[in-house]
Automatic annotation (TrEMBL):
Function in brief: Catalyzes the attachment of glutamate to tRNA(Glu) in a two-step reaction: glutamate is first activated by ATP to form Glu-AMP and then transferred to the acceptor end of tRNA(Glu).
Enzyme Commission number: 6.1.1.17
PROSITE patterns assigned: AA_TRNA_LIGASE_I
The Glutamyl/glutaminyl-tRNA synthetase class Ib catalytic domain, residue ranges: 3-319
Chief location: cytoplasm
Residue span of motif 'HIGH' region: 9-19
Motif ('KMSKS' region): 250-254
One GO MF term: tRNA binding
Name of the featured protein: Glutamate--tRNA ligase
Top-level enzyme category: ligase
Gene name of this polypeptide: gltX
Cell location: Cytoplasm
Amino acid sequence: MSIRTRFAPSPTGFLHVGGLRTALYNYLFAKKHNGQFILRIEDTDQTRIVPGAIENLIETLHWAGIEFDEGPNKGGPYGPYIQSQRLELYRKHAQELIEKGYAYYCFCSPERLEKMREEQIKLKQQPRYDGTCRRLSQEEVKKKLDEGIPKTIRMKIPEWGELTFHDLIRGDVTINFKTLDDQIILKSDGFPTYHLAVVVDDHYMKISHVIRGEEWLPSTPKHILLYEYLNWKKPQFAHLPLLLNPDRTKLSKRQGDVAVEDYRAKGYLPEAIVNFIALLGWNPGDEREFFKLDELINEFSLERVNKAGAIFDIKKLNWMNSHYIKNSDLDRITQLAIPFLKEKGYDVSNFQKVKIIVEAVRTHLEYLAQIVDYVDIFFTEIVEIENGEAREILKLDTSKTVLEKFIQKLQNLDGEIDREKFKQLMKEIQNETSIKGKNLFMPIRIALTGKTHGPELPLLVEYFGKEKIKQRLEKFISL
Ligand code: GLU
């Protein structure tokens, strides 16, 4: 059997981190089995559509490295891949269900349905369609159709009994028909509801595995009934555990960002997000934590997806992101950091210089937007001595000696100073003066930055260059 999975978001705005996980698991499962991963846009609820959302979804998936084989803008043998362009197909099968006796027209007005609902709630009953139109005679139906009364189509749920299906993550799941409503499958505007469209599309797009969030588990029996009514082969189902806040409530915006775009905008790296998200509900079975996308493809299996909800721990994401910031190609991290510096008004015209800054501070960053908190010493023209301790150190005789020697050596140096030459000069000063350790390095650090702590000194020196260093150091020799 060829493996085909799909990610089927509604274009209602941003891509939720839970959506990204669903997309990722579908992608990993398909790729692991040399199958296809399909993107399908579920836009049958026209009231919830947000302009630009489809482009945004595609762009965010691309950013994360999750490429689909078939989908909008890309095409494929079973398109179109946007539900609003497939309406005829849904209508045809809604009609077929009516003809076979598995569905019926419902002429109840929204007002009547609302009133019924309110009464049921008042009586502490589960709100449910009362079956009025299910009981209409053929003549009554024909009469109402002829009168042109607005109508929906509802699927019939068996009146008694239960249905058991196998979920690849949750095992056998049994649902009593009593808990299900005669679901509307075609609305009065001629659009299908999700339940009909999802079954029709998964069938025509030859989806072998439906991997989606747990919130769709209660809908699955309706889908299975539709497969049976239409005499179609069912796909396999796998429902992924919920994502939770650290307090185990359902992941919500109130407790932090939930849009992938928000993380992207703060300077989280795609490989960190993907790595982190992959571990929300899946584990490799051992202690390993770092995985690149191709490694995830190799390792992934639905058997290792948990049933229990997965906690979205931002601290872990930050830790993981900082690992990738530290270990990724410096040119790339510099490119990604530049917009944040630019936005703050820093001069980023000299790439080589900015690269030194990024190298010097990247070990402190959990995400790239934080870079602006660490770089003022590189851009400020005025060095202010931070505290008494720094001032005292500068006043030491050894400090004066070090500063004088260093300036002298700088003057004699051919060409610009870099980190290696700096280390060499400091070794010479140590040999000539026997001053070492803190007493040797601290005066230079304080004279350059005013502070006793900060980025690695050799990088600072390389960044400032001969002229600026001389200017800054000379001020302190006379103290
Ligand atoms: N359109 C549904 C959603 O927005 C897809 C559910 C499914 O995968 O069946 O999540």
